[in-house]
User: Which sequence fits this backbone?
Protein backbone atom coordinates (compact mmCIF):
# COMPACT_ATOMS: atom_id res chain seq x y z
CA UNK A 1 0.00 0.00 0.00
CA UNK A 2 1.31 3.43 -0.89
CA UNK A 3 0.42 6.17 1.59
CA UNK A 4 0.72 9.91 1.12
CA UNK A 5 0.07 12.92 3.31
CA UNK A 6 -3.09 14.43 1.88
CA UNK A 7 -5.56 16.37 4.00
CA UNK A 8 -8.16 17.11 1.28
CA UNK A 9 -11.63 16.85 2.85
CA UNK A 10 -10.14 16.57 6.31
CA UNK A 11 -10.58 18.93 9.26
CA UNK A 12 -7.74 20.01 11.53
CA UNK A 13 -8.48 22.06 14.67
CA UNK A 14 -5.55 23.88 16.30
CA UNK A 15 -6.20 25.32 19.77
CA UNK A 16 -3.67 28.09 20.51
CA UNK A 17 -3.11 28.22 16.74
CA UNK A 18 -2.84 31.97 16.23
CA UNK A 19 0.87 32.59 16.73
CA UNK A 20 4.28 30.97 16.79
CA UNK A 21 4.69 27.22 16.45
CA UNK A 22 1.00 26.38 16.48
CA UNK A 23 0.19 28.92 13.78
CA UNK A 24 2.96 27.34 11.72
CA UNK A 25 1.25 23.98 12.26
CA UNK A 26 -2.12 25.44 11.19
CA UNK A 27 -0.58 26.90 8.03
CA UNK A 28 1.06 23.60 7.13
CA UNK A 29 -2.24 21.71 7.45
CA UNK A 30 -3.82 24.41 5.25
CA UNK A 31 -1.07 24.03 2.63
CA UNK A 32 -1.78 20.29 2.57
CA UNK A 33 -5.46 20.73 1.78
CA UNK A 34 -7.15 20.58 5.20
CA UNK A 35 -10.05 22.65 6.42
CA UNK A 36 -8.53 24.42 9.40
CA UNK A 37 -10.02 25.95 12.55
CA UNK A 38 -7.97 27.90 15.10
CA UNK A 39 -8.70 29.37 18.53
CA UNK A 40 -7.02 31.60 21.11
CA UNK A 41 -7.90 34.45 23.49
CA UNK A 42 -7.38 37.38 21.12
CA UNK A 43 -10.11 38.06 18.56
CA UNK A 44 -7.61 40.05 16.48
CA UNK A 45 -5.11 37.20 16.34
CA UNK A 46 -7.89 34.75 15.42
CA UNK A 47 -9.12 37.02 12.63
CA UNK A 48 -5.62 37.63 11.29
CA UNK A 49 -4.85 33.90 11.26
CA UNK A 50 -8.11 32.93 9.56
CA UNK A 51 -7.43 35.54 6.86
CA UNK A 52 -3.93 34.13 6.32
CA UNK A 53 -5.23 30.54 6.15
CA UNK A 54 -7.83 31.54 3.57
CA UNK A 55 -5.12 33.28 1.55
CA UNK A 56 -3.39 29.89 1.41
CA UNK A 57 -6.53 28.52 -0.25
CA UNK A 58 -7.95 26.72 2.78
CA UNK A 59 -11.46 26.74 4.16
CA UNK A 60 -10.82 28.30 7.54
CA UNK A 61 -12.61 29.55 10.63
CA UNK A 62 -11.79 30.43 14.21
CA UNK A 63 -13.15 31.43 17.58
CA UNK A 64 -11.84 33.44 20.52
CA UNK A 65 -11.74 31.60 23.84
CA UNK A 66 -9.53 31.11 26.86
CA UNK A 67 -8.67 27.44 27.39
CA UNK A 68 -9.24 27.98 31.13
CA UNK A 69 -12.93 28.57 30.34
CA UNK A 70 -14.44 25.13 29.76
CA UNK A 71 -17.78 26.46 28.52
CA UNK A 72 -16.16 28.80 25.98
CA UNK A 73 -14.09 25.93 24.58
CA UNK A 74 -17.18 23.67 24.41
CA UNK A 75 -19.18 26.34 22.58
CA UNK A 76 -16.34 27.14 20.16
CA UNK A 77 -15.69 23.52 19.25
CA UNK A 78 -19.43 22.94 18.76
CA UNK A 79 -19.44 25.82 16.25
CA UNK A 80 -16.51 24.30 14.38
CA UNK A 81 -18.24 20.91 14.23
CA UNK A 82 -21.44 22.52 12.87
CA UNK A 83 -19.47 24.21 10.10
CA UNK A 84 -16.83 21.60 9.24
CA UNK A 85 -18.16 18.28 10.60
CA UNK A 86 -16.23 15.88 12.83
CA UNK A 87 -12.50 16.43 13.35
CA UNK A 88 -9.72 14.34 11.81
CA UNK A 89 -6.97 16.13 13.75
CA UNK A 90 -7.14 18.05 17.03
CA UNK A 91 -4.02 19.89 18.23
CA UNK A 92 -3.88 21.39 21.73
CA UNK A 93 -1.04 23.90 22.06
CA UNK A 94 -2.03 26.90 24.19
CA UNK A 95 0.61 27.60 26.86
CA UNK A 96 2.04 30.26 29.13
CA UNK A 97 5.63 30.71 30.27
CA UNK A 98 7.86 33.17 32.12
CA UNK A 99 11.13 32.57 33.96
CA UNK A 100 10.61 32.63 37.73
CA UNK A 101 12.01 30.59 40.60
CA UNK A 102 9.63 28.91 43.02
CA UNK A 103 10.76 31.38 45.68
CA UNK A 104 10.04 34.21 43.25
CA UNK A 105 6.56 33.21 42.12
CA UNK A 106 3.16 33.55 43.78
CA UNK A 107 0.57 30.84 44.12
CA UNK A 108 -1.39 32.59 41.39
CA UNK A 109 1.62 32.63 39.05
CA UNK A 110 2.07 28.87 39.45
CA UNK A 111 -1.69 28.32 39.09
CA UNK A 112 -1.88 30.43 35.90
CA UNK A 113 0.53 28.21 34.01
CA UNK A 114 -0.99 25.01 35.43
CA UNK A 115 -4.43 26.20 34.36
CA UNK A 116 -3.44 27.26 30.86
CA UNK A 117 -1.23 24.30 29.98
CA UNK A 118 -2.71 21.42 31.94
CA UNK A 119 -6.31 22.25 32.81
CA UNK A 120 -6.62 23.88 29.38
CA UNK A 121 -5.50 20.67 27.69
CA UNK A 122 -8.02 18.74 29.79
CA UNK A 123 -10.78 21.11 28.65
CA UNK A 124 -9.79 20.78 25.00
CA UNK A 125 -9.67 16.98 25.28
CA UNK A 126 -13.06 16.76 27.06
CA UNK A 127 -14.82 19.19 24.76
CA UNK A 128 -13.21 17.81 21.58
CA UNK A 129 -13.84 14.11 22.15
CA UNK A 130 -17.50 14.01 21.01
CA UNK A 131 -16.47 15.55 17.69
CA UNK A 132 -13.47 13.34 16.91
CA UNK A 133 -13.95 10.97 13.96
CA UNK A 134 -14.16 7.48 15.37
CA UNK A 135 -12.31 5.48 14.25
CA UNK A 136 -9.49 7.43 12.66
CA UNK A 137 -8.97 10.72 14.47
CA UNK A 138 -5.54 11.82 15.67
CA UNK A 139 -4.98 14.12 18.65
CA UNK A 140 -1.69 15.94 19.25
CA UNK A 141 -0.73 17.74 22.46
CA UNK A 142 2.13 20.24 22.19
CA UNK A 143 4.43 19.63 25.14
CA UNK A 144 7.96 20.86 26.02
CA UNK A 145 11.27 19.33 27.14
CA UNK A 146 10.46 20.69 30.63
CA UNK A 147 7.95 17.81 30.86
CA UNK A 148 10.74 15.33 31.49
CA UNK A 149 13.77 17.52 32.32
CA UNK A 150 13.90 19.72 35.40
CA UNK A 151 14.89 23.26 34.43
CA UNK A 152 15.64 26.16 36.78
CA UNK A 153 13.00 28.88 36.92
CA UNK A 154 10.55 26.56 35.17
CA UNK A 155 8.89 24.58 38.00
CA UNK A 156 5.44 25.76 36.86
CA UNK A 157 6.07 24.73 33.23
CA UNK A 158 7.83 21.46 34.18
CA UNK A 159 4.86 20.48 36.37
CA UNK A 160 2.25 21.50 33.82
CA UNK A 161 3.84 19.88 30.78
CA UNK A 162 4.62 16.66 32.69
CA UNK A 163 0.89 16.52 33.34
CA UNK A 164 0.15 17.14 29.66
CA UNK A 165 2.29 14.16 28.67
CA UNK A 166 0.54 11.97 31.24
CA UNK A 167 -2.86 13.00 29.84
CA UNK A 168 -1.55 11.97 26.42
CA UNK A 169 -0.40 8.58 27.67
CA UNK A 170 -3.54 7.95 29.72
CA UNK A 171 -5.91 8.88 26.92
CA UNK A 172 -4.00 6.65 24.50
CA UNK A 173 -5.33 3.79 26.66
CA UNK A 174 -8.87 5.13 27.07
CA UNK A 175 -9.35 6.46 23.55
CA UNK A 176 -7.44 3.70 21.77
CA UNK A 177 -10.51 1.59 22.44
CA UNK A 178 -12.53 4.08 20.34
CA UNK A 179 -10.07 4.15 17.45
CA UNK A 180 -8.60 7.53 18.40
CA UNK A 181 -4.83 7.99 18.55
CA UNK A 182 -3.15 10.62 20.74
CA UNK A 183 0.50 11.67 20.95
CA UNK A 184 2.58 14.53 22.35
CA UNK A 185 5.00 16.53 20.21
CA UNK A 186 7.86 18.12 22.15
CA UNK A 187 9.42 21.06 20.31
CA UNK A 188 13.03 21.89 21.07
CA UNK A 189 14.14 25.53 20.94
CA UNK A 190 12.24 26.94 17.94
CA UNK A 191 13.52 30.04 16.17
CA UNK A 192 11.40 33.17 15.93
CA UNK A 193 8.91 32.28 18.67
CA UNK A 194 7.50 33.87 21.80
CA UNK A 195 8.86 30.99 23.86
CA UNK A 196 12.43 31.60 22.68
CA UNK A 197 12.05 35.37 23.08
CA UNK A 198 11.08 34.80 26.72
CA UNK A 199 13.64 32.11 27.58
CA UNK A 200 16.57 33.20 25.40
CA UNK A 201 16.10 36.96 25.27
CA UNK A 202 19.51 37.99 23.83
CA UNK A 203 21.56 36.87 20.81
CA UNK A 204 24.31 35.70 23.17
CA UNK A 205 21.97 33.37 25.08
CA UNK A 206 20.41 32.16 21.86
CA UNK A 207 23.89 31.25 20.59
CA UNK A 208 24.56 29.30 23.80
CA UNK A 209 21.38 27.36 23.15
CA UNK A 210 22.31 26.72 19.50
CA UNK A 211 25.71 25.44 20.63
CA UNK A 212 23.98 22.98 22.96
CA UNK A 213 21.83 21.41 20.21
CA UNK A 214 23.62 18.34 18.79
CA UNK A 215 22.10 18.88 15.32
CA UNK A 216 23.65 22.38 15.46
CA UNK A 217 20.72 24.68 14.82
CA UNK A 218 17.49 25.98 16.30
CA UNK A 219 14.33 24.27 15.13
CA UNK A 220 11.83 25.79 12.71
CA UNK A 221 8.06 25.96 12.89
CA UNK A 222 8.01 23.61 9.90
CA UNK A 223 10.04 21.03 11.84
CA UNK A 224 7.15 20.84 14.30
CA UNK A 225 4.50 21.11 11.57
CA UNK A 226 6.02 18.18 9.67
CA UNK A 227 5.85 16.00 12.80
CA UNK A 228 2.19 17.00 13.22
CA UNK A 229 1.40 16.23 9.57
CA UNK A 230 2.92 12.77 10.07
CA UNK A 231 1.14 12.08 13.38
CA UNK A 232 -2.15 13.30 11.94
CA UNK A 233 -1.92 10.98 8.94
CA UNK A 234 -2.34 7.28 8.24
CA UNK A 235 1.44 7.01 8.00
CA UNK A 236 1.42 6.87 11.81
CA UNK A 237 -1.69 4.71 12.20
CA UNK A 238 -0.04 2.38 14.77
CA UNK A 239 1.59 5.17 16.81
CA UNK A 240 -0.28 6.27 19.94
CA UNK A 241 0.72 7.29 23.46
CA UNK A 242 4.12 8.49 22.26
CA UNK A 243 5.97 11.59 23.49
CA UNK A 244 7.92 12.60 20.38
CA UNK A 245 10.83 15.02 20.83
CA UNK A 246 11.43 17.13 17.73
CA UNK A 247 14.51 18.88 19.05
CA UNK A 248 17.69 17.94 17.20
CA UNK A 249 18.62 15.72 20.21
CA UNK A 250 18.72 18.82 22.48
CA UNK A 251 16.96 17.07 25.34
CA UNK A 252 19.36 14.09 25.20
CA UNK A 253 21.98 16.46 26.64
CA UNK A 254 19.67 17.73 29.37
CA UNK A 255 19.11 21.30 28.06
CA UNK A 256 21.63 22.42 30.73
CA UNK A 257 22.60 25.71 29.05
CA UNK A 258 19.05 27.02 29.17
CA UNK A 259 18.53 25.77 32.72
CA UNK A 260 21.69 27.53 33.97
CA UNK A 261 20.85 30.76 32.21
CA UNK A 262 17.22 30.81 33.38
CA UNK A 263 18.22 30.24 37.00
CA UNK A 264 20.71 33.13 36.90
CA UNK A 265 18.35 35.40 34.96
CA UNK A 266 15.32 34.81 37.21
CA UNK A 267 17.33 35.29 40.43
CA UNK A 268 18.79 38.56 39.08
CA UNK A 269 15.30 39.85 38.20
CA UNK A 270 13.87 38.78 41.53
CA UNK A 271 16.71 40.38 43.55
CA UNK A 272 16.69 43.67 41.64
C1 LIG B 1 6.76 36.02 38.32
C2 LIG B 1 4.84 36.38 37.08
C3 LIG B 1 5.61 36.73 35.93
C4 LIG B 1 7.04 36.70 36.07
C5 LIG B 1 3.51 36.87 35.42
N1 LIG B 1 3.56 36.49 36.69
N2 LIG B 1 4.76 37.03 34.92
N3 LIG B 1 5.40 36.03 38.25
N4 LIG B 1 7.56 36.34 37.27
N5 LIG B 1 7.82 37.01 35.05
C6 LIG B 1 2.44 36.29 37.62
C7 LIG B 1 1.58 37.53 37.79
O1 LIG B 1 2.18 38.46 38.68
C8 LIG B 1 0.30 36.91 38.36
O2 LIG B 1 0.46 36.58 39.73
C9 LIG B 1 0.20 35.59 37.61
O3 LIG B 1 1.52 35.30 37.11
C10 LIG B 1 -0.77 35.66 36.45
O4 LIG B 1 -0.37 36.74 35.62
P1 LIG B 1 -1.42 37.50 34.67
O5 LIG B 1 -0.65 38.41 33.81
O6 LIG B 1 -2.55 38.04 35.48
O7 LIG B 1 -2.03 36.23 33.88
P2 LIG B 1 -2.63 36.09 32.43
O8 LIG B 1 -3.09 37.43 31.91
O9 LIG B 1 -3.59 34.99 32.51
O10 LIG B 1 -1.36 35.68 31.53
C11 LIG B 1 -0.79 34.40 31.61
C12 LIG B 1 0.74 34.49 31.46
C13 LIG B 1 1.14 35.34 30.24
C14 LIG B 1 1.27 33.06 31.40
C15 LIG B 1 1.31 35.17 32.73
O11 LIG B 1 2.55 35.46 30.18
C16 LIG B 1 0.61 34.76 28.94
O12 LIG B 1 -0.55 34.99 28.60
N6 LIG B 1 1.42 33.97 28.17
C17 LIG B 1 0.99 33.38 26.90
C18 LIG B 1 2.09 33.44 25.87
C19 LIG B 1 3.32 32.64 26.25
O13 LIG B 1 3.71 32.61 27.45
N7 LIG B 1 3.97 32.03 25.24
C20 LIG B 1 5.20 31.28 25.47
C21 LIG B 1 4.91 29.82 25.48
S1 LIG B 1 6.49 29.02 25.39
P3 LIG B 1 -0.13 37.54 40.92
O14 LIG B 1 0.20 36.80 42.17
O15 LIG B 1 0.62 38.85 40.79
O16 LIG B 1 -1.59 37.67 40.66
C22 LIG B 1 6.49 27.66 26.34
C23 LIG B 1 7.70 26.75 26.37
C24 LIG B 1 8.96 27.33 25.78
O17 LIG B 1 5.52 27.37 26.94
C25 LIG B 1 10.08 26.32 25.90
C26 LIG B 1 11.33 26.79 25.16
C27 LIG B 1 12.39 25.75 25.16
P1 LIG C 1 3.06 31.57 21.44
O1 LIG C 1 3.40 32.21 20.13
O2 LIG C 1 2.90 32.43 22.63
O3 LIG C 1 1.75 30.70 21.20
C1 LIG C 1 0.82 30.43 22.20
C2 LIG C 1 -0.55 30.37 21.56
O4 LIG C 1 -1.50 29.98 22.55
C3 LIG C 1 -1.03 31.70 20.99
O5 LIG C 1 -1.86 31.45 19.89
C4 LIG C 1 -1.85 32.29 22.15
O6 LIG C 1 -2.78 33.23 21.61
C5 LIG C 1 -2.49 31.03 22.69
N1 LIG C 1 -2.83 31.09 24.11
C6 LIG C 1 -2.03 31.46 25.16
N2 LIG C 1 -2.73 31.41 26.30
C7 LIG C 1 -3.98 31.01 25.97
C8 LIG C 1 -5.16 30.77 26.72
N3 LIG C 1 -5.19 30.95 28.05
N4 LIG C 1 -6.27 30.35 26.06
C9 LIG C 1 -6.26 30.18 24.72
N5 LIG C 1 -5.18 30.39 23.97
C10 LIG C 1 -4.05 30.80 24.58
O7 LIG C 1 4.13 30.46 21.86
P2 LIG C 1 5.17 29.48 21.13
O8 LIG C 1 6.52 29.82 21.64
O9 LIG C 1 4.94 29.41 19.66
O10 LIG C 1 4.74 28.09 21.82
C11 LIG C 1 3.71 27.29 21.27
C12 LIG C 1 3.65 25.94 21.94
O11 LIG C 1 4.91 25.27 21.81
C13 LIG C 1 3.38 26.01 23.45
O12 LIG C 1 2.58 24.89 23.84
C14 LIG C 1 4.76 25.88 24.05
O13 LIG C 1 4.73 25.39 25.37
C15 LIG C 1 5.40 24.90 23.09
N6 LIG C 1 6.89 24.97 23.05
C16 LIG C 1 7.50 26.07 22.51
C17 LIG C 1 8.88 26.09 22.39
C18 LIG C 1 9.59 27.25 21.73
O14 LIG C 1 10.78 27.15 21.43
N7 LIG C 1 8.90 28.33 21.43
C19 LIG C 1 9.62 25.01 22.88
C20 LIG C 1 8.97 23.94 23.48
C21 LIG C 1 7.59 23.93 23.55
P3 LIG C 1 -3.53 34.36 22.51
O15 LIG C 1 -2.47 35.23 23.08
O16 LIG C 1 -4.44 35.04 21.53
O17 LIG C 1 -4.32 33.62 23.54
Assistant:
Amino acid sequence: MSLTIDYQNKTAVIIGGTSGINRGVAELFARHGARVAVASRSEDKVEDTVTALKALGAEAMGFAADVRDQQAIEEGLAQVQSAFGDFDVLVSGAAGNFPATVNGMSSNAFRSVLEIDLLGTFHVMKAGFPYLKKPGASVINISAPQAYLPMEAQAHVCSAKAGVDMITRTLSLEWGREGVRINSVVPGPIDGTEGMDRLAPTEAVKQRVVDSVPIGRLGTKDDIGHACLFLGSELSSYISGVVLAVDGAWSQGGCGEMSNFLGQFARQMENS
The mean pLDDT is 97.
